[in-house]
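Quick one - inputs below.
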Amino acid sequence: MADLPSQWTHEPHHILQFRAGDKIADIDTDSSPGYTGDKDGSAEVQAERNERFAGLQEMLYANGKAGDSRSLLLVLQGMDTAGKGSIVKHVVGAGNPQGIQYTSFGVPTEEERAHHYLWRIRKALPAAGHIGVFDRSHYEDVLVVRVHELVPREVWEPRYDEINAFEEELVDSGTIVVKCAMFVSLDEQKRRLAERLDRPDRYWKYNPGDLDERKLWPAYQEAYQAVLDRTSTDHAPWFVIPCDKKWYTRLAINELLIEALKSMKLAWPPPGFDVEAEKKKLAQS
Ligand code: AMP
Ligand code: MG
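Output:
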């Protein structure tokens, strides 16, 4: 726990990891598991952890340049207003954009629909040394698709196993997969949608269709439960993030990223040249 702010009583990757039998209905979305601090003071902790993340991310990128093929994929899955965009802006955004590959997955285009559902996912996987960020993901193909019956059960049912196999292959090829299931309460979502409607600088985030999805909340809860039950694996476990407190969501996912990067045991790559000789040559130039 040496490299963890003192407000954390438990390591986030332990306390937030989904465990078999966990029920979505039991999640207290307004809680801040493992963290004793509150909103006051969180900005200061966040700033320090942003820097820690940025340092590790740059090291990953430098290693990629030096031939290390490893990468990291952050999967952000959650209902509207859960805070996916806020993680991209305030957590991942602290990193160097050179090494970040961000992709948001919306309703598939005609071209995408003509392919297997993992086609557009594979195309967006992070290159060596990069952090890929999925704002929604292949999980939509067992969430929105299941809830709206966009394809029959016989088609979406086998996808859980297929996704597990796909992610295992990914991990075996050197990509760490950090999957965050972000949960906001129905009430908090209402407040956040109301705010979007109150602020001209937030209209762009509002989509009238979001209200239809609210009506399907129980069906989504069931679909999310199935995702957690069936796709939280040893190679790519799910982390369950309570998201009513934005400051907590950021701190928690920031720590998950730091932890994942630390597990790669990165160091600055050695120079591919003779430093002293280069200094001499530079001085004479
Ligand atoms: P947003 O992330 O708020 O921009 O919304 C993107 C929308 O695209 C959401 O309503 C998703 O449910 C929808 N979406 C994402 N992936 C799929 C998919 N594979 N099939 C159908 N709809 C999808
Ligand atoms: Mg939206």
